[in-house]
Amino acid sequence: MHMIDIITKKRDGFELTKEEIDYLIKSYTKGDIPDYQISAFLMATYFNQMTEQEATHLALAMRDSGDSIDLSEIKGIKVDKHSTGGVGDKVTLVLGPLLAALGAKVAKMSGRGLGHTGGTIDKLESIPGYKVELSVKDFIKQVQDIGIAVVGQSGDVAPADKKFYALRDVTATVDCIPLIASSIMSKKLASGADAICLDVKVGHGAFMKTEEEAVKLAKLMVSIGKLAGKKVTAILTGMDEPLGHKIGNALEVYEAIETLQGNGPDDLVEVTLAIGSQLLMDANIASSNQEAVDMMNKALHDMSAYNKFLELVKAQGGDVNVLKHPELLLSDKKVEILSLKDGYITEMNALDIGKAAMRLGAGRETKEDEIFLDVGIDLHKKIGDQVKKGEVLATFYVRDKGVEEAKNLLLEAITIGEHQKSIKLIKRKIS
């Protein structure tokens, strides 16, 4: 088998076989195929796309390029969720403990962030002492003991995907739906869960800007999961404004704690309940959507979900005492951003608000950038809210970095008009 033949076949729009894809992934992972040939393959795929079978074969080949986690020792149905990424998206911090408090088994491997703000692992590292690395043995034991573990993704999981993504990033082939779907699903399938719910974000602050694109990606990921023998559902959720009010690592931990104590913002709760109800049904813990929602609302208000979060943090070495005073996690230097006019907030460019948080140091522009865990943005107003000139739109938690630039980005990202407007958060479910 020769790589030039595979490139030619894909360039001419033909479907690759499982054997051809397996050869490509194994040889590239071993270093037997040079980057320039894989770059040519990626560009041919970008223009000619892939069938569902090809994308599935690619996901499975990348999964098999490294370690897969065997969770069979854990009794019951293991559940997992994945978000395609958004601004202020701290759903995992709320959903994981909530599901575990209701008896689900949550074995979660999460990543770091690049752009906007940090990833789930960066957020958890804002808790002093929290260990994001566990051995597979300890990871499995913790899920058995308390129902949940949240760790960083192992370097041995889907190494082919890491090599592929690095090339996609520099060859303008990142936004190719089959490559996105295969990348995400290779890691999800390697993580060992039985049931997966995909939170596919759509809007200004999401990778998928239109619902049409998001539906296409969601359908392909669901198809890959099902062809691989997993229960997979996708829920399309809006990202035309940040999720919740707080953006930044420790700030998002703070808001997750508020939510786990029954005082969370409506939009964060709505998304959490939509994903959680699907996974509780998949885990055979709830028999209907309404039963699942009722169970979760109870757990959010009787402190059982919050107590499970404390249990998780304690199990992974985190300082539980600081969580009882989460304001201690935040920078004590604050700047208030005031509205320049009267009216209603009609639009928020979530991406630019995420960039404003990044300018303050809450996210990374490159993998080497230092991230400040204690900085970020607390939005006091969202779409539909009335504002008056001189009223506080947001509070910045800052160090001596990027304040003026972040202020300008935020003010330009918020549109104030004369008429009140509302947005739909849960777009649709694909299963």
UniProtKB/TrEMBL annotation:
<dbReference type="InterPro" id="IPR017872">
    <property type="entry name" value="Pyrmidine_PPase_CS"/>
</dbReference>
<dbReference type="Pfam" id="PF02885">
    <property type="entry name" value="Glycos_trans_3N"/>
</dbReference>
<comment type="subunit">
    <text>Homodimer.</text>
</comment>
<dbReference type="InterPro" id="IPR000053">
    <property type="entry name" value="Thymidine/pyrmidine_PPase"/>
</dbReference>
<dbReference type="GO" id="GO:0006213">
    <property type="term" value="P:pyrimidine nucleoside metabolic process"/>
</dbReference>
<dbReference type="GO" id="GO:0004645">
    <property type="term" value="F:1,4-alpha-oligoglucan phosphorylase activity"/>
</dbReference>
<keyword id="KW-0808">Transferase</keyword>
<dbReference type="GO" id="GO:0009032">
    <property type="term" value="F:thymidine phosphorylase activity"/>
</dbReference>
<dbReference type="InterPro" id="IPR036320">
    <property type="entry name" value="Glycosyl_Trfase_fam3_N_dom_sf"/>
</dbReference>
<dbReference type="GO" id="GO:0005829">
    <property type="term" value="C:cytosol"/>
</dbReference>
<keyword id="KW-0328">Glycosyltransferase</keyword>
<dbReference type="InterPro" id="IPR017459">
    <property type="entry name" value="Glycosyl_Trfase_fam3_N_dom"/>
</dbReference>
<comment type="function">
    <text>The enzymes which catalyze the reversible phosphorolysis of pyrimidine nucleosides are involved in the degradation of these compounds and in their utilization as carbon and energy sources, or in the rescue of pyrimidine bases for nucleotide synthesis.</text>
</comment>
<dbReference type="InterPro" id="IPR036566">
    <property type="entry name" value="PYNP-like_C_sf"/>
</dbReference>
<comment type="similarity">
    <text>Belongs to the thymidine/pyrimidine-nucleoside phosphorylase family.</text>
</comment>
<dbReference type="InterPro" id="IPR035902">
    <property type="entry name" value="Nuc_phospho_transferase"/>
</dbReference>
<dbReference type="Pfam" id="PF00591">
    <property type="entry name" value="Glycos_transf_3"/>
</dbReference>
<dbReference type="InterPro" id="IPR013102">
    <property type="entry name" value="PYNP_C"/>
</dbReference>
<dbReference type="InterPro" id="IPR000312">
    <property type="entry name" value="Glycosyl_Trfase_fam3"/>
</dbReference>
<dbReference type="GO" id="GO:0006206">
    <property type="term" value="P:pyrimidine nucleobase metabolic process"/>
</dbReference>
<dbReference type="Pfam" id="PF07831">
    <property type="entry name" value="PYNP_C"/>
</dbReference>
<feature type="domain" description="Pyrimidine nucleoside phosphorylase C-terminal">
    <location>
        <begin position="344"/>
        <end position="417"/>
    </location>
</feature>
<dbReference type="InterPro" id="IPR018090">
    <property type="entry name" value="Pyrmidine_PPas_bac/euk"/>
</dbReference>
<protein>
    <submittedName>
        <fullName>Pyrimidine-nucleoside phosphorylase</fullName>
    </submittedName>
</protein>
